[in-house]
Amino acid sequence: MRADAERNRARVLAAAMTAFATGGLSVSVAEIARRAGVGTGTVSRHFPTKESLYEAIVLLRVGEIVDQARWLAATKDPGTAFFAFFAHMVDQAAANRGLAEALAGDGFDVEAAAARTGLDLDGVERELLDHARRAGAVRPDLTWADVKALIVGCLAREGAFTDAEARRRMIEIACAGLAAPPGHDPSRGMITGG
């Protein structure tokens, strides 16, 4: 790719990243082109559809999320890794409306897009959950669908306004509900005592 075409692509990606983070999926290609200082034709040459541009942006974020999940799994105990990842996902989605919409499944299948590029977001998420479950750190009946719903719920509380205190409180409430009940014996898959 020529140097000027590479610069234009980088400008489009940077503009799209900001636009999707603040405006979500509803941002138009024309608005992204305006922010990048290029024409819509330039955007279309690099990204034939708005969805392909959105996918490129989300996958940049997903790559970072997968790296964070792997780092947590390698450096923390299973329970700490799981709960830190949960908080990280909420924080990342709160800072990026486009990512929040993708995680909520609003017109974009983030796991399928990640899988097409070799990023196993679903796999690392489930691995963190499975390790936490086996360690007895989370409820034995917890599914990743439950976790995703709670991530979206934490974001719903914040709404259109950034409220880090409310977000932190919602993360704490959700994590308390995700945690294994007192007396849970992971080796037996049940609660002992009471």
UniProtKB/TrEMBL annotation:
GO terms for molecular function: DNA-binding transcription factor activity; transcription cis-regulatory region binding. Residues 28-47 bind DNA. Gene3D superfamilies: Tetracycline Repressor, domain 2. Residues 6-65 form the HTH tetR-type domain. Coiled coil: none annotated. The keyword DNA-binding applies. Keywords: DNA-binding, Transcription, Transcription regulation. The keyword DNA-binding applies. This is TetR family transcriptional regulator.
